[in-house]
Amino acid sequence: MQLTYLGHSAVELELSKSSVLIDPFITNNPVAKANADDFTPSHIILTHAHGDHVGDTEDIAKRCGAVVISSFEIVNYFASKDIEGHGMNPGGSFQFSFGKVKFTPAWHSSSFPDGTYGGMPMGVIIEAEGKRIYHAGDTALFSDMQLIGKKALDIALLPIGDNFTMGPEDAVEAVKLLRPKTVIPIHYNTFGQIEQDAHAFKQAVEAETSSQCVVLSANDSYKME
Ligand code: NI
Ligand code: MN
Question: What is the CATH number of the domain that holds 9?
Fold first, then answer.
């Protein structure tokens, strides 16, 4: 399995038979280098309804028929635009063709740019091809991350931008609770309010925990052995 970071919180997972996009904010993403037209995912997973996460979902799903996996409310919103979806809620899991998806709580908010209520903001755990990946979405630090880490995580994608989500200091505490093999920082340096030094974060993670930290730039890939 290969993970490609597209900038901000957008990630592509390339599996043996399909690809899955998480929070595909590409076209208006100041740090993205990819083109939304280049992706043909089977599924798009959305953590919440904010514009910097929903991004190109409508265009990509309409073009290639990707199924949106997200909150009940977000899936209903896209159903009104004739986009196929699968609605879930925190704590629920479901076995899809590519792997198992489980949504977790996230401390944040979730409304569409037009004000439509997006349900609960969430993080997501994906189990596929023998790997377990946690994308925290936008969230504050919370102690139940300890429960998420009870089953070994190969990768944790954690926001470090501060202001809208946890900052680097809290993200290091999150790593201590989650104990993933590898941490990848996300949701930073996209806009002025969330500028952070990812390399200083990497140093702190590797000094204070036994996890390794991998800093990716937009379009960098990380291969899971
Ligand atoms: Ni948000
Ligand atoms: Mn965000």
Answer: 3.60.15.10
In a domain, 225, yes or no: no
Residue 23 Cα, ligand 2 centroid: separation in angstroms?
9
For every residue of the chain, which 3-state class applies, written as one string? CEEEEEECCEEEEECCCCEEEECCCCCCCCCCCCCHHHCCCCEEECCCCCHHHHCCHHHHHHHHCCEEEEEHHHHHHHHCCCCCEEEECCCCEEECCCCEEEEEECCCCCECCCCCECCCCEEEEEEECCEEEEECCCCCCCCCHHHHCCCCCCEEEEECCCCCCCCHHHHHHHHHHHCCCEEEEECCCCCHHHCCCHHHHHHHHHHHCCCEECCCCCCCEEECC
How many angstroms is it from 225 CA to the middle of ligand 1? 31
Mean pLDDT of 194-213: 98
Is residue 77 in some structural domain? yes
Question: pLDDT category, 215, cuts 50, 70, 90?
Answer: very high
The pTM of the full predicted model, rounded to 2 decimals, is 0.98
Answer yes or no: is 221 within a domain.
no
Domain that holds residue 140: 2-216
Ligand nearest to the CA of 190: 2
